[in-house]
Amino acid sequence: MVITSSSELEEASDSNYDRNAEVKAFDESKTGVKGLLESGVTKIPRMFYSGELNLSERSEKDSNFTIPIVDLAGIHSNLTLHVEAVEQIGSASQKWGFFQVINHGIPNSVLDEMINGIRRFHEQDSEVRKQFYSREKKRKVNYFSNAGLFTNNPVDWRDTLGFLVAPNPAKPEDIPEICRDIVIEYSKKIRELGHTIFELLSEALGLNPSYLIQLGCVEGTYALGHYYPPCPEPELTLGATKHTDADFMTILLQDQLGGLQVLHDNHWVEVPPVHGALVVNIGDLLQLITNDKFISVFHRVLSSQTGPRISIASFFINYNDMVEGSSMVYGPIKELLSEENKPLYKDTTIKEFLTHHFSKGLDGDTALQPFRL
């Protein structure tokens, strides 16, 4: 069955609702959430309904909670500024698991064009988008809606263009021409920034600046260009369900619409868009190897009647290790352990960790739990 009209989707509300059939029809359309809007739907399919959302209170705002912003200007030439940045990043990674960076060296023109490039791809004619639609994990460029479409319940209100940045990046000719040049340029610069931030994180742990890099944390990068179309019923669904990131670190570029929230002290705190800033968050694996010194925290994205919202998330982890396997074992860093600070996690491989993460789906819990001692 291929989706051809909104009436087919509205049938989801009747007593004979078949979620598997709805998900299958959605996937076979190969046009994502954007395709639903293009077909004229005014009510969202039931597979998007979020049972976790308090519909009477979309978010909690508290002026006492502000996501830290770290200025990276001068960190390579001024020792005082360098030390301040290390301290701020260390504090944010321990208390928040999230922070924003400004004056990071990537020009605003590159950031703006990256957002525009991802927008251009998703707003092409559906017949053009379909050519890139795939769930094949070995492909280096994929267009899809919801990586866990068949396992996650609910499904998120967003579409994605994903591409492998490192190692063994996608060939230029495999990247959609409409955004090819900027994807290649942005990917190079985000890798460079990733190296810098891992050096600062290493220092914040009291380690040699190259420690986390030598450990392989920056070896792989996979980028996802998310497109959150306007939602006709935003009170019923989320753009991204509550989750933590199963990587070492994520660098996120978001447009000016907002919607990203972090769970801090039982409050959902907005991550306000700052033009020219990039959002950095600690991933599950960095929490594991730092023995809970740095924290990977829950975050989500609200849906909205306005949009589309565009964001690009660059995940620092070698996904090749999941497909091909690797003998590299990760556990709490020995230099951080002591009699007072005993290991909290068992050793694991990226393949083992990611296999668990993807099999459990977005169930509202962290993937770290089974790895605790």
UniProtKB/TrEMBL annotation:
PROSITE patterns membership: FE2OG_OXY (PS51471)
Family assignment from sequence similarity: Belongs to the iron/ascorbate-dependent oxidoreductase family.
PANTHER family according to UniProt: OXIDASE, PUTATIVE-RELATED (PTHR10209:SF797), OXIDOREDUCTASE, 2OG-FE II OXYGENASE FAMILY PROTEIN (PTHR10209)
Gene Ontology molecular functions: dioxygenase activity; metal ion binding
Cofactor: Fe cation
Residue ranges of domain Fe2OG dioxygenase in the record: 219-319
Alphabetically ordered keywords of this record: Iron, Metal-binding, Oxidoreductase
Protein name: Fe2OG dioxygenase domain-containing protein
